[in-house]
Amino acid sequence: MKDAAQIGLFGAAGAAGRSIAHALGAAGRRYRVIGRGRDALQASFGHDPLAEIVTWNPDDPATVATAAAGLQTAVYLVGVPYHQFGQHPVLMQKTLDGLRAAGVQRLILMGTVYPYGRPRTLPVTESHPREPHTFKGKMRLVQENLVIDAHGHDGLETLVLRLPDFYGPDVERSFLHGVFQGAARGSRAQMIGPIDVPHEFVFIPDVGPVVERLSRTPEAFGRVLHLAGTGTITQREIAERAYALAQREPKLMVAGKTMLRVMGLFDPMLRELVDMHYLLTDPVVMNDSALTKLIGPVVKTSYESGIAQSLAAARRVAARAAAQAA
Question: How many CB atoms lie within 10 A of CB 303?
Answer without folding.
Answer: 19
